[in-house]
Design a protein that fits this description.
Number of strands: 0
Radius of gyration: 18 Å
Distance between the termini: 37 Å
Helix content: over 70%
Number of helices: 12
Shape: globular
Structural class: mainly alpha
Order of helices and strands: HHHHHHHHHHHH
């Protein structure tokens, strides 16, 4: 845990900076459908979007380190702190003082994260889930993401952004699980890494997540997709960790109401932050 926690926080900050840069670049492009690769092809030629990949690579490296030494049920909730870090990044970018609402969001959200992790005491399970477990993850992911994309085509702008944000968050959560499996199994052999089907699944899921995420940023204010993504990614990570990886959370006795309160605090913090970030 002494390695996983600081690495996860570094990843959260890096992803927050990357998200800020990518959202600004995506907003400048013509709107596309969720799976229209023309958006990515245009963004690849955009200087601001290219710059956003520098902190993103740092974030992936830090997340890989965190997942190698810590359970998904610990690392993924910590990554949600990136939204609160984005508040400070946005303030520095615009050279404006931090708003009191933003400060309240940071304090409430951080308190929720700390309480959740302290009370549930996440513990590692298996390091290599079975093929059957992965198929269950694939089926649940495909059905949920497909449903979000289908409904997103029939609703208004803000709701579309939120649904696409949920889909992107789910894909990122599954990608984190695959990243953990690849990181734990790799012992320095590049041939074995290239032949690992989990690596190729990670690449496919990760690219889909990036595509859907960029389209989500094009719809409505930043608030809707950012809140949806920030909540759905750690929830997905916890669910996959508790099922496929058989990680355990302590929820008995007095812990359960404390966990509920922590989740409520996290949701309130995220909503406060997003309501300001979207303006």
């Amino acid at each position: 845990m002494t390695v996983a926690v600081p690495a996860a926080l570094v990843a959260a900050f890096a992803f927050a900076l990357s998200t800020t840069l990518h959202q600004r670049a995506a907003k400048q492009q013509p709107r596309r459908q969720a799976l229209d690769v023309r958006l990515l092809s245009r963004l690849l030629r955009t200087r601001l979007w290219q710059l956003g990949w520098v902190p993103d690579v740092v974030g992936v490296a830090a997340q890989t380190l965190a997942l190698r030494y810590g359970p998904l049920t610990l690392v993924q909730p910590l990554l949600a702190s990136g939204l609160f870090m984005a508040i400070l990044i946005e303030a520095g970018w615009t050279r404006q003082p931090v708003h009191r609402r933003d400060l309240a969001a940071t304090l409430v959200g951080t308190a929720g994260l700390v309480t959740f992790l302290a009370v549930t005491d996440p513990r590692a399970g298996v390091t290599d889930p079975s093929a059957q477990a992965w198929w269950w993850v694939a089926g649940g992911t495909g059905a949920t993401v497909g449903g979000c994309l289908l409904v997103a085509r029939r609703v208004g702008d803000a709701a579309r952004g939120a649904l696409l944000g949920v889909a992107a968050g789910i894909l990122y959560g599954v990608a984190a699980a695959l990243l953990k499996a690849v990181a734990v199994r790799w012992h320095g052999d590049p041939v074995a890494l290239a032949l690992d089907p989990r690596l190729w699944a990670l690449i496919v899921v990760g690219l889909l997540g990036v595509q859907v995420n960029q389209v989500a940023f094009q719809h409505g204010r930043l608030a809707a997709p950012l809140v949806a993504l920030t909540l759905s990614e750690p929830v997905t990570g916890v669910l996959v960790g508790a099922t496929a990886f058989r990680e355990t959370l302590s929820l008995g006795g007095i812990r359960l109401p404390l966990v509920v309160g922590a989740v409520v605090a996290l949701v309130v913090g995220v909503r406060l932050a997003a309501s300001r970030a979207g303006r």
